[in-house]
Amino acid sequence: MYKNILNDILLEEKPSNSIYELIESGEINNIIPELTKLKGFDQQTPYHDKDVLDHTMAVLDSIKPNLNLRMAALLHDISKPDCFTIDEKGRGHFYGHHIKSAEESEIILERLGYDNDFIMNVRTLIKYHYIKEIVANVKEKGIKKFIDSVGEERLDDMLELIRADMMGKSNSGNIEVVDKLRNMCDEYLQKKDAE
Predict the structure, then answer these.
(1) pLDDT tens digits for 84-100?
(2) φ and ψ at residue 5, rounded to 5 degrees
(3) Which of 31, 47, 65, 148 has its CB surrounded by the most CB atoms within 10 Å?
(4) Any idea which fold 2-194 has?
């Protein structure tokens, strides 16, 4: 039952409206109670001007209405509060949050009754959504590893999630990193197809 409600919400034009309503009413505790820990969680970083929940909702609303992709957007930072540390300068960090969020998403989606293929797609998107600035130093071998890890069939969705995640930050000026990654992936795949 809750799975169907969630699916319908995620395919709405602006799913954040319904998610916020579920949180305010407390009904979210019957579906994904883990979302409540994101509300009001200050990230304490200059890259984010929103708490984790508002950032998540911004990412969710900017994703095309595809269930796998929207679910990955909803859960992509679900474990950020669990990975939070502060450095000596008072700046927040979330080391490994993408890996822990991927693991937690699997638990949540199994609980809600999603099938294994759906869970694997969402988990993979979440696990590899966090590329930071590594693209500048990635060589062909790294691109091959990235594509092999994500899967060619998920590459477009992966890049859309990365783009939406960057756009949901206070400084989305690094968006050209996604274009660079896209170009590097395309070049590698064209070269592979020509062999």
Answers:
(1) 677 888 776 667 788 89
(2) -60, -45
(3) 31
(4) Hypothetical protein af1432 (1.10.3210)
Distance CA 67, CA 94 (A): 26
Strands (E), 18-126: 85-86, 92-93
What's the full length of the chain, in residues?
Answer: 195
Burial of 40 (0-12, 13-18, 19+ CB in 10 A): exposed
Give Rg (Cα) of the chain: 17
Q: How far apart are CA 57 and CA 37, in angstroms?
A: 14
Nearest in space to 126 (alpha carbons), one of 98, 168, 96, 97: 98
d(CA 150, CA 160): 13
Neighbours of 131 (CB within 10 A): 18
- Contacts of residue 171, Cβ cutoff 8 Å, sequence gap at least 6: 46, 47
Tokens of 62: 């900017």
Token pair recorded at residue 15: 């799913």
What residues does each domain of the chain span? 2-194
In which band, very low, low, confident or very high, does the pLDDT at 133 lie, cut at 50, 70 and 90?
Answer: very low
